[in-house]
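re the bet — no i am not wrong, look at it urself. input seq straight from the record:
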Amino acid sequence: MHTVVVRTSGVTASDVLAVARGGTRVELSAEAVAALAASREVVDALAAKPDPVYGVSTGFGALATRHISPELRARLQRNIVRSHAAGMGPRVEREVVRALMFLRLKTLCSGRTGVRPEVARAMADVLNAGITPVVHEYGSLGCSGDLAPLSHCALALMGEGDAEGPGGGVRPAGELLAEHGIRPVELREKEGLALLNGTDGMLGMLVMALADLELLYKSADVTAALSLEALLGTDKVLAPELHAIRPHPGQAASAANMLAVLKDSGLTGHHQDDAPRVQDAYSVRCAPQVAGAGRDTLAHARLVAERELAAAVDNPVVLPDGRVESNGNFHGAPVAYVLDFLAIAVADLASIAERRTDRLLDKNRSHGLPPFLADDAGLDSGLMIAQYTQAALVSELKRLAVPASADSIPSSAMQEDHVSMGWSAARNCARPSTTSPGSSPSSCTPRRGPWNCGRG
């Protein structure tokens, strides 16, 4: 059976998809275990000193001014998990939770967080057992990481809260851990904080969205080409030399795809004598430009995702020279921006596709096709209401494309006074179309392709 090995250098998008959607087993590399142990020695040494160190011997956020005595530090780490597990709303999808946990494990294994190897092993064991903590829709501002979602995962690691078993059904996490021989984690200095302080939820959703949108954009090129053919349009606008003079890579790729689909077509550009057209409508003629811009957006988003997959996001972090330093790497702006960008691009892709549908159904603009593509127009309505449904979906996509990252709301007594809203950006882009209100996300199968931004 295939296994994903987690190394100090990070993981790949394929690894995330394999674990999140395929249930692939996870294993820690020897180098990762060594790095975990080495960074833990640094944290233990700091914990033994009288000097206050954030995350080790102080409170958190706006409460970081309080020094915590050694006998209270285990309680401190438990308390941050319990207090931060305050998510609300419907459950998020199983694949999202698995991606979130796997990506947090990836950061732990970087050797920059200071947690013990047994904490990372326990997280791997939970993933391998198919235990999925219950994580709720609301609770992350996308800064200081996806705090509430990650807290619910950490709570399950402690044997508390609720989780879904491998066969379905929500039960107390402690029962599920016991059934699979997994010992609940007893947190020590910094470990509670390290389990919560990452952009893993929004990154996981970005990785899965990119995989689904890759397929969507290929499909968009095919359907645009078929629409051009059905409308007796000209494929001359797809000539490579026309796209070379505006050298956007995605545009050239989309045009080439459309041209390949239309190769040897007997319908393009030869049947305009009865109703001559100098040019086709924008929704047909500009299909490569719109889909191509989306492809380039995907390329940029993929670059951001690859950088994040190689990153160690925590605060504070253990540096290679042994220093433990506070930082702002938990801010989700890089991921939030591209998630919003993807939602905008795909809403527009849906919009231009809907315009082609409308043109195919309108006898005044479809160049000889029957009204609404009906077999017996008037007796039959054909695809009239299919276009209504498509238009409603496009309208919903436009609403969800309003950028979440343009908003910010201060929190933690103004200590965290600017946040990314990256989790909200991810949820807007990844709104499941297969889950009805009140249904269990885990019951929606297959899990591949639930992204709202891909259903136009």
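see?? Confidence is low (pLDDT under 50) at residues 432-456. told u. also The radius of gyration is 26 Å. so pay up
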